[in-house]
């Protein structure tokens, strides 16, 4: 096992009707800014419940955080934070709203003049030393943003990771019933995004991290069991509750501790979202199988383990096991109505240069668990994903 530090201060409040707990979780004299997206929380009554729970406090609203939240939108929220002397940020929504709220907090407290500086640090924590407390009410299980210190912000044709220990929410309310109103395609996004978060922390090379591996395999197997079921039957509480908890545990640092990680699928996926507007999870479903085909040698031992333990493939040579595991993975995504080829989104070989150029422009030239994946290999992966 590799050395690691593990830090996670987020309190989770899980279950039906837990929005009521906001009254205990946020100080009575707080000036709260509620940040949200394009209106789903208004339409489905979540905003009213939040306001009811916060009665007696000074409440302000910032609507309109779009999917793949934009820097320019978030900077408008920074103005509200300053003007209204806000001292608590409450994100109510999916990954975009939670990420956006984290960025608003950092930008409001960053001392430098140009806040786009914050987009340049990648996985290194940004130089911000104080921030407001953040809480979240999660309406879309997918990103794990509710229990991690990361965020992804869109700016000038790119998507940028912004990390800080200050971005961990103080608490997150996970009420699976708040997610019942999601369109089927967003539920599928949640299943696939979670599945691939786990795999980016798992399908690398073995370091004898048994707890992390078996926890990762447990999440993967759970998603295979409940994935289609929770799309078809959105109000099956237990199926949805399992998805919600898997999404949170899939990217809160637990299974990342002490293991190599390979975020190549996400990095290429972010370029595809930035250029073509394809949903985050949908980009991943096309890239991951292609990456494995290209990198089957480097990832061989873990892919065999994945085949045996997640898909119960016990027969055949290692190569045959890997082949079958890749095709079962594709099949799983396709069963969720998630295409595994970029051609389904209209991309052709003429698009490959555009994506590779964009990776280069954003410095994504040393990807993979060992940093050996240059643009030539990314090109092969994108070609395979077509
Ligand atoms: O904006 P509204 O009207 O609320 O509608 C949203 C949005 O259109 C809708 N929605 C959310 N909850 C709903 C609902 N509709 C009906 N009922 C509900 N209960 O869903 C749409 C998509 O929402 P969004 O927040 O964009 O989706 P998701 O949670 O998948 O977040 C994607 C973003 O997270 C980033 C992605 O890059 C992307 O920008 N990621 C963040 C990560 C992190 N912080 O650790 C890691 C991830 O890998 C990912 O990169
Ligand atoms: Zn993701």
From TrEMBL:
TM spans (from-to): none
Domain Fe-containing alcohol dehydrogenase-like C-terminal: 188-358
Name of the protein this chain belongs to: Iron-containing alcohol dehydrogenase
Key words of the record: Oxidoreductase
Domain Alcohol dehydrogenase iron-type/glycerol dehydrogenase GldA: 9-176
CDD domains: BDH
PROSITE patterns reported for this sequence: ADH_IRON_1, ADH_IRON_2
Domain of life according to the entry: Bacteria
Keyword Coiled coil: no
């Amino acid at each position: 096992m590799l050395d690691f530090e593990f830090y996670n201060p987020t309190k989770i409040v899980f279950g039906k009707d837990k929005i009521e707990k906001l009254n205990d979780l946020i100080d009575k004299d707080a000036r709260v800014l509620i940040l949200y997206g394009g209106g789903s929380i208004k339409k489905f009554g979540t905003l009213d419940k939040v306001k009811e729970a916060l009665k007696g406090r000074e409440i302000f609203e910032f609507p309109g955080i779009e999917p793949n939240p934009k820097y320019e939108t978030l900077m408008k929220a920074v103005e509200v934070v300053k003007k209204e002397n806000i001292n608590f940020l409450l994100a109510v929504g999916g990954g975009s709203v939670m990420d956006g709220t984290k960025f608003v907090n950092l930008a409001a407290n960053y001392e430098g003049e140009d806040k786009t500086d914050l987009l340049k640090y990648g996985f290194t924590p940004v130089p911000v030393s104080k921030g407001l407390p953040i809480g979240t009410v999660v309406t879309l299980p997918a990103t794990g943003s509710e229990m991690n210190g990361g965020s992804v912000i869109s700016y000038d044709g790119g998507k940028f990771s912004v990390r800080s220990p200050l971005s961990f929410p103080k608490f997150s309310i996970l009420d699976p019933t708040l997610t019942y109103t999601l369109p089927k395609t967003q539920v599928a996004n949640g299943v696939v995004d979670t599945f691939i978060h786990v795999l980016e922390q798992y399908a690398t090379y073995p370091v004898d991290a048994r707890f992390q591996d078996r926890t990762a395999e447990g999440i993967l197997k759970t998603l295979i069991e409940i994935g289609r079921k929770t799309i078809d039957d959105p109000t099956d509480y237990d199926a949805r509750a399992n998805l919600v908890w898997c999404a949170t545990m899939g990217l809160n640092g637990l299974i990342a501790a002490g293991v190599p990680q390979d975020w190549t699928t996400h990095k290429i996926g972010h370029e595809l979202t930035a250029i073509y507007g394809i949903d985050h999870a949908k980009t991943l479903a096309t890239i991951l199988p292609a990456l494995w085909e290209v990198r089957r040698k480097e990832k061989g031992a873990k892919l065999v383990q994945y085949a045996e333990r997640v898909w119960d493939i016990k027969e055949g040579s290692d190569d045959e096991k890997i082949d079958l595991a890749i095709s079962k993975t594709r099949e799983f995504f396709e069963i969720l109505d998630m295409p595994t080829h970029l051609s389904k989104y209209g991309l052709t070989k003429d698009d490959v240069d555009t994506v590779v150029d964009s990776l280069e422009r954003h410095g994504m030239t040393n990807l993979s668990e060992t940093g050996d994946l240059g643009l030539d290999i990314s090109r092969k992966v994108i070609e395979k994903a077509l």
